[in-house]
TrEMBL record:
Residues 823-1204 form the Nucleoporin Nup133/Nup155-like C-terminal domain. GO terms for cellular component: nuclear pore outer ring. It comes from Nadsonia fulvescens var. elongata DSM 6958. Keywords: mRNA transport, Nucleus, Protein transport, Translocation, Transport. One of its GO terms (biological process) is poly(A)+ mRNA export from nucleus. Belongs to the nucleoporin Nup133 family. SUPFAM superfamilies: Nucleoporin domain (SSF117289). GO terms for molecular function: structural constituent of nuclear pore. Pfam families: Nucleoporin_C (PF03177), Nucleoporin_N (PF08801). Residues 80-492 form the Nucleoporin Nup133/Nup155-like N-terminal domain. This is Nucleoporin-domain-containing protein.
Amino acid sequence: MAGNLSLRELRKSANTSTYRTQGSFFASKRNHSTADSSFSYNPSLQHNESLANQSTIVHSSDITGANTGLAHDSGIVELTKNTMFRVSRLAATPAILQPQPEANQSATSIKNGSFDPINNQALLLSNRMAYIWSYNSPDKTPECLSFPVGENNYNDQSNPFGIFVSPAAGSTESGLVTVTSSGALNYWESTGGVLISEDMLQKRKNLDHQISLYNGEGIENLQNIEPAGIIATTSSGRYILVTLRDSSGKTHITSTTMRGNGPGFWNNIRGALAVSTTRKNVVAIKLGISTHRNHRQVLIVNRDAALTIWDCDRNTDPVLKSDLQLKSLMLNYIKDIYPQAERGFQTHDMELLHNGFLVFLTSFALNDSEECYILFSVDVTNENPHLVSTYRVQSYSKRSTAKSPTPKLLLPQPGDTLFLVFPSAVVLVDTIKKSVSENPSSLLDKKWEDIVTFRDDVQILTSGYENMVKVNEKVTVHAGIVVSTNNSGIIRFERFERANDLAMADYKVSEYDLAKTRVEQAIHFGGDEENPIVFDLRKELKIHPREIELALISVSKDILNSSSPYLPPHLPSITEYLELRCERLDRLAFYVNRNLSNGVSVQIRLQLLWHLEMAVAARSLWSLIDPYSIESVESPQSVLLTIIAQHIQDLKIPDTDPLRAWFLNHLDDFMPLLLDAQKYCASQSVTGPSNKVIWDTNRVLLTVLNESAYKTREAYSSDIYGISELGSCEQPPWTSSKDLMYALEDQYTLTCNAMTQISATNDDLYDELKYQMLDLVAVLYYTYEERMNWCRGQDPTGLEINSLSACLNTKGSGWLRSFVDVDERERALNIAEVYHVYSSMVEILDGHYTQIIQGRMKDADKDSSIFEIRNAFLGYFETFGYPFAVEVYYYFANKKQFNILLAKFPEFNQYLERFFEEGNLPKLAWVQDIHTGNNQAAGVKLTELTFVKDPPVNVSNKLIQLSIAKLALLSTSQDDLSLVDEIDRQLELSTVQKSLFDQFKGYMPERDDGSVDVFIEEISPEFKRRNMPYIEAGFKRALGKLATEVALNSDELIDILTLTNLKSKSTAVNFFEALRIVASSNENNKKKKFLQQLIWRRAFLCDDWNTILATKGKSDDKMTEITSQTILFKTILAGLSENLFDVYLLELPRFSSSLISEQDKPLIQEHFTDVTESEINGIYSDLVGENILLQASCDKVDLEGWTKGLVVMAKRMVGQEPTFNSYSNIRSQTSTSEDIEMSDI
């Protein structure tokens, strides 16, 4: 099918026979193919008939290379057409107008010419020859009469003129007059006379005449003013009336200077002065009214808008009726808006409107590159001429050069449209205009105007008008003009008549209408390289970009659904009609690329592209349907027919052939069609659809998406439409809707399930389903990627992108594994490469390596295969760089294959170093540092690992990591050992935690889930009675970490050490360890004081002091024994033995200072981390509760004094002699004189 080739490939193969059989739509004029076809020309058709009805497709087999229409029998080629006018190239093109080699520039030597619309004759004159032919002849190379003109001694500088004149009596053929610039006149009473031989011509001297000229004077203009004769104007400003017949009607040539001031010497003087001032540089001679058989009013204007009006009669001297200077009238009106107009202001031409007003075509330079053309309508019927209306030409502003032909103004009857003829363009403007406004800016008001521009190599040589002709009230010839051109022959412009309701009012075209009609002409007529018209939007039109965008979408939709008036309603072949629409949308793409690449939003460009994709997809789908009939719906291979039939029924299309109607008019209904096809497949039976239905549904989905839409997008998206991103489009691409993504995933699952039911060796359908499954995965990846690209510009939260990415990562690896399962490893890698699925690339290569090592690849050469895999890895490292390396490292880290991660790819060690520097796999980063000899970095990284909270650090691992870190740091020559000191502190904490774990191991339940409720009573029997819920919650969390060997921080350790009481020797040791933790910490003094206070308070709470200090009936030895067994005394004794108080300046216990106070509240949050404000208040309340318990336990004794006594006893036991000063110093570095009195000893 045609969809099997990408559009880019189709373009390359456009001229091949294979491509022709596939019916691709790119075999257009862009490929220089020659079309024998154009729209037919039929002058009898009314302009308001359907454009499609005005054209007849007669050669559908070559529709892709055709213009909008095809050649009529008359040979006329329609070049463009809209509802307002038509432009056609006539068949008859004499050799003088045909393209010539550069060495023979015949057409460029044409000087002047004329048209006879009555007899359909054209005249061209070069400096030596005249050419006459019938321009309406159906012959492509008509019979052309050529003959020399002028004197025998002519030279290359001569400039002959020629005009057709009325037939002689008894003849129907027009006469012909030629005049050279030197005044040599030849007259033939009929054009048939030209056939007379040169010898016979010499015998008819009365047909020749010499106009008397002054020395250096030359003829510049020649105009037929019959019945009065002919007017010639000269370079000196003289007007000469030439009569061809006398008063009796006999041939008699005379020439008389038109003075217009009556006879006599002084009148001659006044006429001569007028010649020297206002009558030079004549640009137009136009005919006014004719009052009798010999009379004609003549209007002559020169470049400076000096207008003279004459009454001419072939039997009397001409009379000057008016001599008007209109330049100041025109300039005064526009000087405010165009102050630069006076410099270079000039008149180019003039026409007489049907209401008797004159319209002048004028211009002046706006700037170095632009010319401003203005039409002035002037009423000269009164003594004081005045402006009626002004209008600035909107569509043309090209500067003319000195060698450029003078712009012409033509007004064919009935006089509703002015034709402005420029060297390479024709502008059409309505003549109806309301009265002039007092505001000069009104000349910028828009009315109906359009322009036809020719290629640079096509220049207009001569022009003439054709008046409208009606026969029995039916228009047989439209009002228009004909122009002769080099390289493109004779071209006719026809203006269609306006409806009656518009005939009496200004008709304004909206910017949207103008934009649409120009785009339509470009698309439907611009595909033929032989068409001389340039359809590009001109900068002068100044159409708002939004109007252009709306026009583009409208044109595209019209083509997609066959509603364009430029398309035929039907073609016998749907295939060829789809080809035609694809070709038109292809032209639209190139038109936008050439004209509007920066002026059309991405959203509009995407919609235009999607329309083309749908058309191409429809063409491909029809190739699946065409072999079947609608009656074959029950066929197992007719999913598409079934769904389309249902859609036709739902749309209620009233057509005898609804299937074809859908492909003609409903291609924008594509997405529901695909979704319903998949739903139909999934719902065929309870046990699942048949394998044939799955195969056929896959074929539909893949034909539309993979073989049509995606390939079209690849060919056009970037190169033609210049689309690089999707984010600015408000709606997602039609091929990546969520519903379609879900449908494709379901279809992939159905296909995989079907494959599992089929033997790979016994069923031919297996291979077809396998390749469809592979294509479905490719489509899924494309769809996900496209959807995510769109979301990047539409979803600032990133929620959908993250969801799609997670879904693709989860499902995608499984999709690619299915490739490996069916021995399509290379294709899986190709998809992974395209979409940068690096994790799957690593997994596939490593899986292949594992199979080879395990000997599961029987036919593989082990060594060469391993070599190829390693080269594949290296190639990916080289191609994809660091992002691929990251996936490699994580993959082998997850597999615990650290040796491969660290040492397998030394060629790209810079990626590994960067990987670790960015904080990835921190537990391995230090190994790389050791490997590279950077022990300092290794020590730092290992130390940092011990502070990681997520995941929690195992205390055993922490000990190992800290030990290695210490060794690494000590092996360097660094003088700063502060980090080593911190490591020592952390090692001490870890050692204490290990000791605690050993203490409690026998009390822990067998469960390892960290639950501690079951053994709190065992390790802290008094804890429950204290009723401290907030402290209990933190205590449980710390015990949970201890039970699971998660590293504890110093605050958590202090809580466990001081809140447990096993009634064993270890309890006193625990309080001592708590003090040692405080001593070695780097906390601030306030925090240290708070911790010491907490430790001593809880040490006090471990014993019942009212009972212990009840001295009645106890000996000294007994009191010494009892007090020495208290946790408080044992802790004091241990601290003194280890010099904690001397070396680390810790406080000795004091009952009053161990109580919590309001000022200690800010320190609670430092100790109890990760708690809320309300929890801080609760914890403070619990600590106050400890105060109450402590006070209750010693309310009958002087615990303050006894504590001091215990300190003295402990000092003596360690060999220290207590003194007041030493006790004071030991107790607190921050104590004041008010803290201690002499009675304290």
